[in-house]
Structure formats: C-alpha cells, structure tokens
DNA sequence: GTCTATAACGTGATAGAC
DNA sequence: GTCTATCACGTTATAGAC
C-alpha cells in the first residue's frame, strides 16, 4: 500500500532517489554534489533538500539495503561461510559498492548511525536465533565483523591481492574461518 | 639529520601535527576544522595549509602508525590470533581510534590511498614471509581483512555488543578464527 | 628572504522569500 | 517549485615582521 502512487511529487522523489543511488554508488558521497544529483534527475537543486532534508539523509534513504542483503544469509548453516564468501567475491551483490561508499562516508553522523544499525540488523541479528551453543549472540556479532572484514577488503580499502585472487581460493580460506566462527567451541 | 632541529618552523610544524592528531582522534576528520587545529596549536589557519598543503595531507601526516602497530604482529605464530585479538580488545593500542577516523574519512582520495597502503603494509606484508603452506600470501591478506573486521566493529561501526563483551570470550571465538586463517588447510 | 598574519575567494550545502 | 541569499569551510593572495 505504500509504494506506487502516481503523484507527481512521488515520481520526482523516486527520480531523485534513483539518481542519487547511481551517482553515490559510482563516485562516492563526497564527490557527488547535490547539484549533480539534481541535474541527473532533471530537477532544481533546492527541491532535493526540500524533499530529503539534507544530502546525508538523501544518501541514507537512497540505499535499499534490506532487499539486497536478506538472501545472503539464507540456506543451511553448515555451508554458510563458503556460500557467503563466494557470493561476495563474485560481486553479484550489487549492494556491495554502495555499502563501501557508506563506510567511507561514515564520518557523517547520520551515515554513521545508519551503518551501525545496518551491520547489526543485516549481518548479525538474522543469525542470533539460528546459532546453537554458548555465546550464540556474540558469535553472530563476530561473524558480522568478519564479514565486514572481507567486504572492506573489496570495497573500502581495495586490497588488490584479495580482489584478484581466485574466488575459490578465498572461499576455501576465508569461508572456512567464517564457518569456524559459526561453530560452537570445545 | 632529519629529526630535531630547533628551527622555529619545525617546532610550529610539530605543534600543528600534535594538535591535529589530538583533534582528529577525538572528533574525526569531518568535525575537525582547519581553524580548530590552528587555534589549538596557537597559530594562524593559513600556515597550517602552507606547511602541509591541505587538510587531507595533514591528516595523513599526523598519523604515526608504524611505531604503534609494529609490535602487534610480533611473537610466535601459533598463538598470534588470540594475542592480537586480546591486544585490540583491551584498547591499549592507542592507534585504534585514529585508524577508525581514517576509515570513516576514506572517501577523501588522499586518505583512501593511505588507508589502502597502511592495511597492506602493517597487517598483511609482515606476515607473508612467516606463513608456511600454500596460498601464504593470500592467507596473510585474508588475515589482514579479518583484523580489519574486528577493528571496524570497535571503532568504525561501533558494535556495542562486541565492545562490551567479555574480552576473553571474544578472544576465544575471534582469535580462534584468526588463527585458522594462519593455518594451512588440508 | 623566509615565516607569519589579515583578508578575501570559491565552492558547496542549506534556508527563506516570492 | 524556483530563485536567491547565507553560512561554513578549505584554500589562496597579499602584504607585513623578523
């Protein structure tokens, strides 16, 4: 019931959001000006702010993370480490680039808040109830941290060696370590 | 020949660097203005730029990373995962906060470059020659990625659950996974 | 002649008037 | 909704002090 009005203002808002997502993803938060977004969407710079309040909030609202990430942690726990690593390395997850942009812009308060919530909500919490054994909640959060590590290598600090390594080699090593974090100790 | 001149300009430069490091660490890159740094150092805003070229380059030059991080990866490989995790969690590493500031400001080109080089040089390369078995270089880089993961939880996205968890619990789980990455597979 | 201070410029986000 | 003003900030031009 929320999505597709044919209001003019909703169409404009969607156009701005689409332009913003595209430009932020391609160029990052700093390099993308409100004027660039407005021009791309074919509107006046002022209405961008009028609709979204600020460039920061527009950035946050232009990310449609949940839809893209939910599938990542589905499927059997026993092979989750490998599957997640493979999915990330293959780069089909088109959410990865803008996630990198979010981290690199997390000096901004609103973006930092959103990053914080996103990582916990998307990568840790879905696992909490599924994990068995002691420290289940902690291990879910540490799994999330470990995911953030490989994601950072790919789209935050751009480790060429990891980016160009054979996918299955990375899967074998990093996937194995991720899997261990899911496994109760002892 | 390099270090301690008693030149006035060198003293000024050191004062600026010290103020910059302190403020950047406490408030982050965005929230710290050139004027703030200048005021703290007791100099004019213009000479900050004159001495360092730009705010970005000042940030990079105010980090004295190598001195602080070198010790982290020393000692026997067999227990490195645990020891590194414990050292990070105890927060004695006063390099951690400004590392977080660097990641959160890595949307800026110069800072991104420095981050990229730092992670590889400080966390991956020191291990390459020490690791045995296949994919030694890749595993060193993946170990670095994994370190970045826990560091990010602590000072980038601020996962309260990880930050407040018992140190030895985190050491047991994350340290164990780190250690596995160091261990040849098969 | 080098180092420092004052003042101004350019840019970019944002708020208010019409 | 559009246009224009304001404000903050990094940076530079200009010129003075030692």
UniProtKB/TrEMBL annotation, chains A, B:
<protein>
    <submittedName>
        <fullName>Transcriptional regulator, TetR family</fullName>
    </submittedName>
</protein>
<feature type="domain" description="HTH tetR-type">
    <location>
        <begin position="10"/>
        <end position="70"/>
    </location>
</feature>
<dbReference type="InterPro" id="IPR009057">
    <property type="entry name" value="Homeodomain-like_sf"/>
</dbReference>
<dbReference type="InterPro" id="IPR050109">
    <property type="entry name" value="HTH-type_TetR-like_transc_reg"/>
</dbReference>
<dbReference type="InterPro" id="IPR036271">
    <property type="entry name" value="Tet_transcr_reg_TetR-rel_C_sf"/>
</dbReference>
<dbReference type="InterPro" id="IPR041678">
    <property type="entry name" value="TetR_C_16"/>
</dbReference>
<dbReference type="Pfam" id="PF00440">
    <property type="entry name" value="TetR_N"/>
</dbReference>
<dbReference type="InterPro" id="IPR001647">
    <property type="entry name" value="HTH_TetR"/>
</dbReference>
<dbReference type="Pfam" id="PF17920">
    <property type="entry name" value="TetR_C_16"/>
</dbReference>
<feature type="DNA-binding region" description="H-T-H motif">
    <location>
        <begin position="33"/>
        <end position="52"/>
    </location>
</feature>
<keyword id="KW-0238">DNA-binding</keyword>
């Amino acid at each position: 019931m929320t999505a597709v009005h044919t209001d003019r203002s909703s169409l404009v808002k969607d156009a701005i959001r689409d332009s913003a997502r595209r430009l932020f993803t391609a160029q990052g938060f700093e390099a993308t000006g409100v004027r660039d977004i407005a021009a791309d969407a074919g509107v006046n710079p002022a209405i961008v702010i009028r609709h979204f309040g600020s460039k920061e909030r527009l950035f946050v609202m232009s990310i449609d993370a949940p839809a893209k990430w939910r599938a990542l942690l589905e499927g059997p726990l026993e092979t989750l480490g490998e599957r997640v690593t493979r999915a990330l390395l293959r780069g089909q997850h088109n959410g990865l680039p803008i996630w990198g942009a979010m981290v690199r812009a997390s000096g901004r308060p609103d973006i930092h808040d959103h990053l914080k919530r996103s990582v916990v909500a998307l990568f840790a919490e879905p696992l909490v109830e599924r994990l068995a054994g002691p420290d289940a909640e902690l291990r879910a959060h540490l799994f999330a941290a470990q995911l953030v590590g490989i994601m950072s290598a790919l789209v935050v600090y751009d480790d060429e060696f990891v980016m160009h390594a054979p996918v299955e080699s990375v899967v074998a090593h990093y996937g194995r370590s991720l899997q261990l974090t899911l496994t109760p100790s002892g």
